[in-house]
Amino acid sequence: MIEVKNLTFSYGKDKQALHGLNFSVADGEIFGFLGPNGSGKSTTQKILTGILKGHGGEVSLFGKDLRTAQTQEFFQQIGVLFEFPYLYANLSAVDNLNYFASFYPKEQLRDVKELLEELEFKKDFLNKPVSSYSKGMRQRVSMARALISNPKLLFLDEPTSGLDPAGAVLFRKIIEKERQKGTTVFLTTHNMLDADLLCDRVAFITNGNIVALDTPQNLKEKNSNHRIVVSYLYQGKRKEQTIEAPELKAGIPFAYDEIISIHSQEPTLEDVFIQYTGRGLS
Ligand SMILES: Nc1ncnc2c1ncn2[C@@H]1O[C@H](COP(=O)(O)OP(=O)(O)OP(=O)(O)O)[C@@H](O)[C@H]1O
Fold it and tell me: Residues 177-197: pLDDT tens digits?
């Protein structure tokens, strides 16, 4: 679906934002693009969605070179959730969505009200102006905008930002539903939980370079110290020991009366990111 070879981009002479990215995203894959502020995520997404022109290297989407692919048909196949909601503040959710829907062929469209209902949008605000909405409500309208045209390729920039925990769970369910439909998703995020739960593979980008690319599970396993922490009771006292995972093959290698818990010391995706880049994700 997406093929990127040696992608470079400079803002003027002095600011090279991308230094030769290589990756591909398969049909139906949820691909996570993770990196700290200023690493080049938005620049990459803007190039892939045709907003930013003048890249170096080769990019193809739907099997066509991006430089020639940007026809009306191309834009009708992609949906974009922008990091900052591009909505008309004086129009209601319904009017915003009807307006964006007017750019697409009717047979491709989803029903505005059904979509907003699926996104658990508050009914009594349907016809009130966007300027009166909370952040979470605006995010729901932005997601509806991205989904209204049933896109084959969906770009989501920080989809769960501004949502409360229940809203984030709902959005993850909706993204999962897109996966089941076969939609390809390019997910740009700082949110490690979203990336870990949703993505088939993730790329870590820092300073305009991809420094790791794999499944979340492989990244965690490759960077694990393979140690296990055992909490247990022995002769009336609570104790804890750390052992190497292979030692477990022969059973617990020390005396105990009762095991309380066993935890692997597998790193989180954020730990792995910091190992690769030396930087946190904010
Ligand atoms: N319009 C611009 N003019 C000049 N430099 C820019 C411009 N936009 C971005 N940059 C620079 O390009 C680099 C990559 O920026 P980009 O916005 O792609 O990062 P990002 O990973 O999306 O960051 P964030 O998480 O803050 O959105 C940064 O050094 C940034 O300062």
Answer: 999 999 999 999 888 889 999
Q: ipTM score here?
A: 0.96
Ligand 1 site-directed mutation target among 7, 9, 10, 15, most atoms within 8 Å of CB: 15
> Does residue 275 form part of some domain?
no
Q: Are residues 159 and 233 in the same domain?
A: no
- Type of residue at 249: K
In the reported structure, the alpha carbon of residue 231 is separated from the centroid of ligand 1 by a whole-number distance in angstroms of 46
Q: Is residue 274 part of a domain?
A: no
Number of domains in the chain: 2
Q: Residue 37 C-alpha to ligand 1 middle, in angstroms?
A: 8
Structure tokens at 29: 């894959």
* 13 Cβ contact partners less than 8 Å away, ≥ 6 residues apart: none
Token digits of residue 156: 């989501």
pTM: 0.87
- What is the C-alpha to C-alpha distance for residues 104 and 123, in angstroms, rounded to an integer? 25
Which range of residues forms the domain containing residue 253? 225-265
- 145 and 246 inside one domain: no
Distance in Å, CA 282 to ligand 1 centroid: 14
Atom of ligand 1 nearest to the CA of 12: 4
* Tokens describing residue 228: 């296990």
Is residue 114, in this structure, part of any structural domain at all?
yes
